[in-house]
Amino acid sequence: MRRNRNAKIVATLGPSSSDADMIRRLHKAGADVFRLNMSHGTHEDHRERVFHIRNLEREVERPIGILFDLQGPKLRVGQMAEGAVELESGATFRLDLTPEIGSSLRAPLPHPEVFAALKPGMRLLIDDGKVRLQVQDCGEDFAETIVETGGRVSDRKGVNLPDAVLPISPLTAKDKDDLAFGLDLGVDWIALSFVQRPEDLELARELIDDHAALLTKVEKPAALDCIDELVRLSDSIMVARGDLGVEMPPESVPRAQKEIVRACRLAGRPVIVATQMLESMIGNPAPTRAEASDVATAVYDGADAVMLSAESAAGDYPIESVTMMNRIIESTERDPSFQRFVHALQTQPESTAADAISDAAGRIAKTLGAAVIVSYTMSGSTALRAARERPEVPILAFSNRIETARRLALVWGTHCVHTADVRTSTEMVEKATRIAREAGFAGVGDHLVITAGMPFGTPGTTNLLRIAQMPG
């Protein structure tokens, strides 16, 4: 099943999209990777979804990626009188560790780490920023604030601190339990939530080892201050615009999105643009024109993937949402100006054999008008380097490791094939031409540009570039 586009689609599974038939229809509509959101659902729910995805994968004979999204630490106020109170703008309001039920004068905030990080002048946002407080005075167990923007505060509403770096790990006890469960299921990507600094990734790396790839979600302003280092230490990045937009001004989010995509493309790391992409399709069969433009902008910028959240997980139109996203991507990439936009960012190859080969493959494919680039890869690094150049032709990535093929399902322009390794250059060409024909990538007389490493079957040895022609 060939996709006629380069950017990939990540679809979140949930109550609207959990049974085998719905997952099959989502994949047929265009979903390349399925996201399991550990903020919702039970382990048994997610186990069943993984079972259906792996069955579908065998049915369609195409690697499918699974993104396992950890919840991360959630800061919440405690219980409020009668379930909710109304705060007036300009009023004083106290937060403290005292467990008594809250009122219009104070509320319990059972997170000592928050008070450890607060300083006068900092902001506290409640319920995704609907209520805004400014700290006037604070100590190790309290904060006296002024209500800048009033509103309703109900039980267990979330709290954000956009001005502080909190002394907490992004892995809670629940996350560690979920992570062990996900690794046991054999998921392909682990998404780490609320990362603030590079050292936040250390424990996750230790626990994951090489059993999955690590994806860092950028949803805290503090992460933007060290984005290059986070990109370097991660296998992929997600621009999580929902939470990012709570903690920074809305007008700053588009610029942040472009900066993150640029950093990832320069480093050759896959990047996902996520949250509220087709949000109106949760309850409507068609998106707004602004939402269609939003998806197209991410595609023009060269993002590897765009993601659907509630649209596919809990909305009324999951299939229509994936179908629409697929149509927007295809239409955008057919634009005669698309190549000019996507190559506005010049990615210079590093001084390695793999980069030199990948850079040359893209140039040769363009010069010859080749039909496809074929990349033999064990770890996936060769295909990643090829995709970094954003070639004008698709990339067929062959790997003898199913784990690699599944992870590459997220990567721009790659069409993954799980196949046995080759032993000779003759076998390499024969397999490349045969599969390119079977998959509809090339016909009689077309040129293929093939990259591989010799000796065959040795990871990290990309040192061969071969031009082949499809036989009659």
In short:
This protein is of the alpha/beta class and 472 residues long.
Tell me what you see in this structure.
The chain folds into three domains: 8-72 and 170-334, Phosphoenolpyruvate-binding domains (TIM Barrel), CATH 3.20.20.60; 81-160, PK beta-barrel domain-like (M1 Pyruvate Kinase, Domain 3, Beta Barrel); 353-469, Pyruvate kinase, C-terminal domain (Pyruvate Kinase, Chain: A, domain 1). The protein is 36% helix and 23% strand. The protein contains 17 helices and 21 strands. It has helices spanning 20-29, 43-60, 112-117, 173-185, 202-208, 221-224, 227-233, 241-247, 253-267, 289-300, 310-313, 318-334, 338-342, 353-368, 381-388, 402-407, 425-438; strands at 8-13, 33-37, 65-69, 84-87, 92-96, 106-108, 123-126, 131-139, 142-149, 151-154, 159-160, 189-192, 213-218, 236-240, 271-274, 305-308, 372-376, 395-399, 414-418, 447-453, 462-469. Helix 5 links the parallel strand 12 (189-192) and strand 13 (213-218). The mean pLDDT is 95.
Report strand %.
15-25%
Shape: elongated
Strand order of the largest sheet: 1-2-3-12-13-14-15-16
Tally of extended strands? 21
- From the N-terminal CA to the C-terminal CA, the straight-line distance is 23 Å
Give the overall pLDDT as a whole number: 95
CATH architecture assignment name of the largest domain = Alpha-Beta Barrel
Helix-residue proportion: 25-40%
The first-level CATH class name of the largest domain = Alpha Beta
CATH superfamily of the largest domain: Phosphoenolpyruvate-binding domains
By CATH, the topology of the largest domain is TIM Barrel
Residue stretches low in confidence (pLDDT < 50, at least 5 long) are: none
Number of helices: 17
Broad structural category: alpha/beta
**Rg from alpha-carbon coordinates:** 24 Å
